[in-house]
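Next comes the chain:
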Amino acid sequence: MNKLRTFTIGGVHPKENKLSEQSSITVLPLPKQLVIPLGQNLGAPPKPVVKKGDEVKTGQLLARAEAFISANIHSPASGKIAKIDEAMDASGYKRQAIIIDVTGDEWVEGIETSTSLNKEISLSKQEIISRIKECGLVGLGGATFPTHVKMMIPEGKIAEYLIINGVECEPYLTSDHRLMLEKGDEMLVGIQIMMKALGTEKAIIGIENNKPDAIAHLKKLAVNYNGISIQPLKVKYPQGGEKQLIKAVVNREVPSGKLPIEVGCVVSNVGTAFAVYEAVQKNKPLIERVVTVTGTSLSKPSNFLVRVGTPVSDLIAAAGGLPEDTGKLINGGPMMGKAVSSPDIPIVKGSSGILLIKKVESKRSTPQSCIRCSKCTVVCPMGLEPYLLAKLSKLSVYDKAEKERIMDCIECGSCQFTCPSSLPLLDFLRLGKQRVGHLIRTRK
């Protein structure tokens, strides 16, 4: 077995709580109505190409990306456009969305719905990138960066390695784990497609060694795919961060403010690799994804294959219903996820999990004065000083926060997790990043 590796700066070890790791992926039935927010990608939202009253089919284009960093949106089911209006999303704010009254599941012609494996990659490099763009793919690891843009390597740069993130270090979440076990061949074909688009001959899948079944399964499959290797990793949060993963897998450090391509790497999630397979080999747009629904009081922690736009309440009902002792509903995992105000929000392309936390666990401790213990600095995987950046953000000293590299923060929550004074460090870091980011954009 390959030697276990990990990143070297910071990191924590929260309880894993992978309650749904043995739960096979179950297809969730279509809801009566889909709410499809336009803002499902990092960058500009696409523009609607349908109107109220239009009849649409599954896979039909609903909104076209017009900006460089944007992604198309397609219909997750067949039905009628009820309206294009504002609807609440996971942020708690109302955003523009396309609302569809579902009538069935009639697919657009040209999309292959069979599950037969297609390993022959017939499209050219440019055709692959175009197909990925047409199908509206975004990174499914959480950042939702348009995948076709990531495949376009800047002039003068070379992608030596494609690094695939199978770490899933966030506690509770198991959607990537199940995908690796159940769709391994399709994922590996997707990786080879991305390798062709990037012009690289080396791909490495990083998987933490708390998933020995996934490691063994993919190692067995990978012998049939040229250039793909599996790298087991020590369990340490936040190893799923792309800079931490690059350090762990190929021992390269991405400079402050730079992208992975600066050190010859492109990082993508296992879910994205599977979506690339479906887009390129089946002409299937990104209209569904695997979502974990979990919690210690939930009767059936599960992994569901869900159409985009499905209300979260449908997933909770399918997992046994909302427990009476639920205190918070989290979109994502406990470390980086955010609490949502209602179970009626829709699943979007970036939804990896829904976590139900007990009331007794959801209450925050009363913040105390910082005791300068430096624990937050020790665990920060980016080598920052979270206590200082949080204070600068609280005091609105954003120019100083920028100089202290607040934009390098990956919002992993390790600082807040380890703080003995229960300070809301992550809250202030997120606020500071938002304000400093605005200042930077204003200058440009």
Observations:
- Residues 375-443 form one domain.
- Residues 278 and 284 are 5 Å apart (CA to CA).
